[in-house]
Every structure is written in C-alpha cells, then in structure tokens.
Amino acid sequence: GQQVMQIPQYQHVQEGEDFTTYCNSSTTLSNIQWYKQRPGGHPVFLIQLVKSGEVKKQKRLTFQFGEAKKNSSLHITATQTTDVGTYFCAGPPDSGYSTLTFGKGTMLLVSP
Amino acid sequence: NAGVTQTPKFQVLKTGQSMTLQCAQDMNHNSMYWYRQDPGMGLRLIYYSASEGTTDKGEVPNGYNVSRLNKREFSLRLESAAPSQTSVYFCASSATGAGWTEAFFGQGTRLTVV
C-alpha cells in the first residue's frame, strides 16, 4: 500500500536559520496537504497543493509539489521560536479520497 | 466557533475497562475520523465515517468500535482497554473526503491504560 515518508524526523536549529522538511510518496499523489502541530496541540491545516510543480508561499513558508507529484517540501526561511512544532505531510491513499495518510512528521525545535 | 469538540480531554483506565470517547462537530461536515498518535508513529487512522450512516475500518481498527450517531457525532469505543491502547486520540472532520479537503481536528484525548 501507499507509504508517505518524511525526512528528517527531527531538526534543531538556531533562530534565524532556515529549515526544510521533505515528503516522499511511494505512489503518485493527486494532491498533498501540510499540517502543523504545536507541542501539546492538535494538527492544524496549513496548505494543499494540487498541481504538478506547484509552489505556494505563506509569509516565510514555501511549499513545493514535485513535477512527478510523488514528493513535496516545506521550507521555512529565517525560523522563529513560534515555528516550533511537528510538521506533517498527508495525502489520499491509493483507495480513494475518503481519508488521509499522514507521514510520521518532522519535529522542529528552534533555539533563541 | 467550537469546530470539533472531544471529551474527555484526559482519561486513565485500568486494563480491561471500557470507555467511549465522544466527538462532535458543528461545521455540518459529512466525513469524520478517529486517529491515534503515538511517539514516532505519526497519525494512524482507526476508523472513519465518510457520511452519516456509514463507517469503515482504517489502518489500526483492532480493539475499537465506532458509532456515527448522527451527522454531528462520531464516538469511539474501547470495549476492553489494553496498555497498547495508551495514546493520544484525535477526532477530525472534513466537508467531503479528507483526501481532497482540509481536515479539522479536535483538541485530543490523552488516554493512559494501566
């Protein structure tokens, strides 16, 4: 079945440094979603990418969807302590659009 | 704007006890989900309900049952709790299938089985 893998599992940066997390699927995705979970909180939707090669920006966050629609990345420029949390990518399983399959997430720690 | 509400927020059970986790959404969403989250394992789907009146198994359904009581409410039942069910449980909802639209999550239930 479909697998969604994320790397790295964990990253610790100094405030002001950049951060990137990568998501890879074993199968082609129709779309990919990104979620953020703050420590002790619940996942919150950030964005959805649909088109091959799509790039979307939200302030310091840049999201990309690969040309083959099998990989995606989230890049944060000049991290801030408010960026701390776990970032998940998620996509529909091979069986259809009824559910989401989540990657295991990348935990980001930012030191001031 | 409550969104997705889960109760209780915390629970400690003894092995073999039963309990029901409650979830309600006020966004008129068709689809609802139960996920569990364990350290290093991400979010794993337990059961989902694509629409009122239907339920289906997810990735890790063993030891759980669900009821879609009406369009708003989707409950998760542990009939005989086991220590392996110690986890954080999240209920979520989406307008249509979450594979295509944004999913909204509840605050979570932190369950410990001793």
The top-level CATH class of chain A is: Mainly Beta
Distance between the termini of chain B: 35 Å
Instruction: Report the biggest beta sheet of chain B as strand number plus sense, adding barrel if it closes.
Output: 7 strands, mixed
| Structural class determined from secondary elements of chain A | mainly beta
**Coarse morphology of chain B:** globular
Distance between the termini of chain A: 41 Å
How much of the residues of chain B is beta strand, in percent? over 45%
Query: What multimeric state do the chains show?
Result: heterodimer
Strand tally of chain B: 11
Radius of gyration of chain B, CA atoms, in whole angstroms: 13 Å
CATH-level-4 superfamily name of chain A: Immunoglobulins
Which percent range fits the helix content of chain B? Answer: under 10%
Q: What's the CATH architecture name of chain A?
A: Sandwich
Proportion of beta-strand residues of chain A: over 45%
